[in-house]
Amino acid sequence: MIEPSPQTHQPLRFLLTANVTKTIRDKEAPDRKIRVPLIREEEQIRWLGRKLNGAADKISELKVRPHPPIYFRKGGRSGKIVKVSFEGLLETADPERLKEILVSGIGPAKAFGCGLLLVRRPS
């Protein structure tokens, strides 16, 4: 088993492909919530900042790449996953929090290959 050991203020290159969404109330059924994709790049960058909050102080050299949507059916309902890849440099703020994220992933649609945060030392 690999045991990551990031250090405070350590710079790390990262790559993350995620299903960037927000949850809203369904207008037809107000007691139900639904996920909707964040389409605009500014919203996607803010989402990444929220998800890494506490684990990373600074994010720089950020590149955002959209992917074609993935359509699926589950339980008689259809859905869409909008993947986005983030690549850049982060500075570790809380090594324990970063380790939690590395183990548990970020965001929904992990069964579709989303949420795995990959890190490495800068070359």
CATH class: Alpha Beta
Order of helices and strands: EEEHEEEEHE
Strand order of the largest sheet: 4-7-1-8
> The CATH topology, please?
Alpha-Beta Plaits
Short description:
The chain has 123 residues and is of the alpha+beta class. Helix content is 18%, strand content 44%.
Note the topology.
Layout: E1 11-19, E2 21-25, E3 33-37, H1 41-52, E4 56-66, E5 70-74, E6 77-81, E7 83-92, H2 95-104, E8 117-120
Overall description:
With 123 residues, the protein is an alpha+beta fold. The protein has one domain (11-120): 2-Layer Sandwich (Alpha-Beta Plaits). 18% of the residues lie in helices and 44% in strands. The protein has two helices and eight strands. The protein has helices at residues 41-52, 95-104; strands spanning 11-19, 21-25, 33-37, 56-66, 70-74, 77-81, 83-92, 117-120. The strands form three sheets. Strands 4-7-1-8 form a four-stranded antiparallel β-sheet, covered by helices on one side. A two-stranded antiparallel ribbon has the order 2-3. The protein has a two-stranded antiparallel sheet with strand order 5-6. A hairpin with a 7-residue loop joins strand 2 (21-25) and strand 3 (33-37). The chain is elongated, with a radius of gyration of 16 Å. The two termini are 24 Å apart. The model has no long low-confidence stretch (mean pLDDT 93).
